[in-house]
Write a structure and sequence with these properties.
By secondary structure, the protein is mainly β. Helix content is about 5%, strand content about 50%. The protein is built from one helix and nine strands; from the N terminus they run E-E-E-E-E-E-E-E-H-E. The strands form two sheets. Strands 2, 3, 5, 6 and 7 form a five-stranded antiparallel beta sheet that branches. The chain has a four-stranded mixed beta sheet with strand order 4-1-8-9, with no helix packed on it.
């Protein structure tokens, strides 16, 4: 079964909290600061996003086939001064998520 790997950057913001991993609209796991996690997903095209409270990341579409492994990196977009901006006006940009 195909795998996906997610690597979360270790940083001060949200360092003590987990991000929910959402694939195709369903929570499939959590990832903490500085952690890497591997999940299995069926063949096909999927959408992945991360979420924390009412904020989250962009949604990334990806396709996996056979024993392929797709890797993603993620982290917190906020800097101290901009935290309120992301929470109030850019909720789906609070976390960054990108395919390696």
């Amino acid at each position: 079964m195909p795998n996906i790997k997610i690597h979360r950057k270790k940083e001060y913001a949200d360092s003590w909290r987990a991000y929910e991993i959402i694939i195709d609209g369903e929570k499939v796991g959590e990832i903490r600061g500085g952690q890497s996690i591997e999940l299995q997903t069926p063949n096909g095209t999927h959408k992945i996003a991360l979420k924390i409270d009412w904020c989250g990341s962009n949604e990334v579409e990806f396709s996996v086939w056979n024993d392929e492994t797709i890797e993603f990196d993620c982290g917190n977009n906020t800097k101290l001064i901009l935290a309120f901006y992301y929470v109030l006006f850019a909720r789906n940009e609070y976390i960054w998520l990108r395919k390696r």
